[in-house]
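Example 9 (inverse folding). The structure is encoded as follows.
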């Protein structure tokens, strides 16, 4: 298995040399500056690849192994195969990625909102901070800030009362922070930032789309793009919904084992794969993550390894330390190792420590929400320790050598 690191590009607070510090070898990145739906040119992809893979003398080489993500335009989610111009543009970007030698593309199919949290700096019992999804706060946003028509039908009278009390206790800053957290697109999001009126308008566009229709649109998208992925040697990996349940009255169709089974049955192409995100899938107590990893092992080409802790109300959760949540990370890695030992070269699984607590010096710095360096470094070290204990240590990075140094070594 190969140690990945999510890097948000040359303006990110974490540099490529700092990625080397933590022991990662594989970069997970994207052309984040490109608008959703824009065609990625071969020149732009190759320039970013060369930035990542041109190694200073004496430094450990890095490789851009995973694109996360090529965003799927909203029109594809609403229209499926009928969104031909958008799908053709997406295929052009995919082809540029494949021809640049990047073997894996991660994507998601969450409508309107991508991953969703109500708090970005929830204070844990260690004093470090984590991201959190609080059900009552979310309900307060939906019922009394967004005021989604018909939302009250999704909540019991007691839940509405709790939401009302939660909303009443909020100061104006708390309300503004909540709106920003939910509508402004979190890092790596593949949906556009929205105003509250724009949010309502976007939800209205989905009023006739239920789970079967959204799933059919994803199937039509995959039927169109997997031949191109096969042609350029790219594996597509669908990220689970986060949280893995309907939000804002919108369907979610990548939340359970049954969801993925339906997609793999409908589109059996070997290019149709899975991003195995333990944090997203682990929020649901009915998801057996080790069993899901075992069943879909051959479809897993990329893994997000993080942990969450469900709270007293299990609909609420926060990001926990990587080995301290509801997911048995050892059991999951045992399944991934069993699959990885069958693979070679580009086929080995890239994993990254996903998210991480904001701790130590990062508490006093500007960090990318969800992606502080120190918390992710801790997570990667813990995951690396499990792999060593399982007898499957990840590749040890070696520094690049100049021609003269290499000649002396050979002599």
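The amino acid assigned to each position is listed next.
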């Amino acid at each position: 298995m190969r140690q990945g690191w999510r890097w948000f590009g040359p303006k990110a607070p974490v540099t490529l040399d700092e990625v080397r510090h933590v022991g990662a070898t594989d970069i997970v990145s994207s052309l984040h500056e490109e608008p959703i739906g824009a065609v990625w040119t071969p020149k732009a992809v190759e320039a970013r690849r060369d930035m990542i893979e041109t190694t200073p003398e004496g430094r450990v080489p890095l490789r851009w192994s995973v694109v996360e993500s090529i965003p799927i335009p909203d029109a594809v989610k609403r229209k499926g195969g009928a969104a031909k111009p958008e799908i053709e543009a997406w295929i052009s970007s995919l082809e540029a990625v494949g021809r640049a030698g990047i073997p894996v593309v991660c994507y998601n199919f969450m409508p309107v909102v991508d991953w969703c949290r109500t708090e970005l700096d929830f204070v844990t019992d260690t004093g470090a901070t984590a991201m959190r999804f609080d059900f009552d706060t979310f309900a307060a946003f939906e019922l009394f800030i967004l005021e989604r028509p018909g939302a009250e039908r999704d909540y019991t009278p007691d839940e509405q009362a709790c939401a009302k009390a939660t909303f009443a206790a909020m100061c104006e800053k708390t309300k503004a922070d909540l709106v920003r957290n939910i509508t402004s697109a979190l890092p790596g999001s593949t949906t556009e930032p929205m105003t509250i009126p724009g949010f309502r308008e976007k939800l209205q566009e989905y009023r006739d789309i239920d789970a079967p229709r959204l799933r059919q649109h994803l199937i039509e998208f995959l039927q169109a793009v997997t031949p191109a992925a096969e042609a350029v040697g790219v594996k597509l990996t669908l990220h689970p919904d986060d949280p893995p349940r309907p939000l804002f009255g919108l369907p979610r169709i990548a939340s359970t084992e049954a969801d993925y089974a339906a997609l793999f049955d409908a589109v059996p192409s070997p290019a149709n794969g899975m991003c195995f995100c333990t944090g997203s899938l682990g929020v649901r107590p009915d998801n057996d993550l080790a069993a899901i990893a075992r069943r879909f092992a051959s479809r897993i080409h990329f893994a997000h390894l993080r942990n969450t802790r469900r709270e007293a109300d299990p609909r609420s959760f926060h990001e926990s330390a990587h080995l301290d949540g509801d997911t048995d990370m050892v059991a999951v890695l045992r399944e991934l190792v069993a699959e990885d030992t069958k693979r070679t070269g580009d086929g080995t699984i890239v994993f990254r420590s996903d998210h991480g607590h904001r701790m130590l010096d990062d508490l006093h710095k500007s960090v990318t929400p969800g992606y502080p360096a120190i918390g992710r470094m801790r997570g990667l070290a813990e995951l690396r320790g499990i792999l060593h204990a399982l007898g499957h240590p990840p590749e040890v990075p070696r520094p690049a050598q100049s021609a003269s140094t290499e000649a002396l070594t050979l002599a």
